[in-house]
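Subject: sequence -> structure tokens, single chain

Hey, anyone have a minute? Need the predicted structure for the following. Not urgent.
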Amino acid sequence: MDALELLRLNLLSPMVLAFALGVLARLLRSDLAFPEALYTALSLYLLFAIGFKGGVELSKTPLAVLLLPLLATLFLGLARPLSGYLAARRLLRVDRVDAGALAAHYGSVSAVTFLAALTFAQGLGYRPEGFLPTLVALLEVPGIVLALLLAKRGGGNLGEAFQEVLTGRSVVLLLGGLAVGGLSGEAGMERVKPFFVDPFYGVLTLFLLDLGMVAASRFATLKQMGFRLLLYGTLLPLLHGAIGVYLGHLAGLSLGGATVLGAMSASASYIAAPAAVRIALPEANPSLYLTASLAVTFPFNLVLGIPMYHALARWIGG
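Reply:
Had a minute. Here:
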């Protein structure tokens, strides 16, 4: 399958089309809107389902198989916020606080991008490793914590920020879902499969429709920030994605698994990181970090990034 066919496959997936529909609806000033309660319910469902399925797969995976991918993910969780911070300081020329806020978003991970990459790889016929949701949970926390440390080198309530990260709904649902899935195992999955497996991608499509509207609402801010923010939001994911694919290959992941790890590494958080930054760095500019992560990096990865990480994984893996 050539690159154009991969791009066509990705662009015509229900998730990408739903995201585009959300953008179009907002640009046309449609009255389409999701109730806040529905958005929250979709988020909770997706996060728990990710963790739960990851836990079930973890219960079947020997530690020897998981060890190298875990080390690779931990390295990504520490290296990505550092590069995100330095790039923000040099390229965007923002102060330490805004650079730390951006680094927190680009050091964490987008669960939706992970799911989109997983669906993409499965659509191509690959069978990515079942323990990959475990790596999502591992990648979520250290990047945020390290970025806040970088931003708060001059002082601040780091303990409160740390608590916010660990007790935030994203981490609780991911890690809690992992624990539930790991303890209940395959037998537990069989009992709840009609709710957590079959409807999963339909829920994800609805969630992306809403994200499309949110992203479009940030386009005005993007115009104000200029070309440098576009470069930051596209070049940094490409760098992180390439490192993720390479480390996935070194860790022994399959071609599909390396593609997904690359997409995870290239993604930027817009659930856990904003919550932590609001408490830890209230003086940071939300238009800056939300626009970069949600209006630039997320659609870039969804439309172009994931096929590019796959092409790189295929090139490295032969």
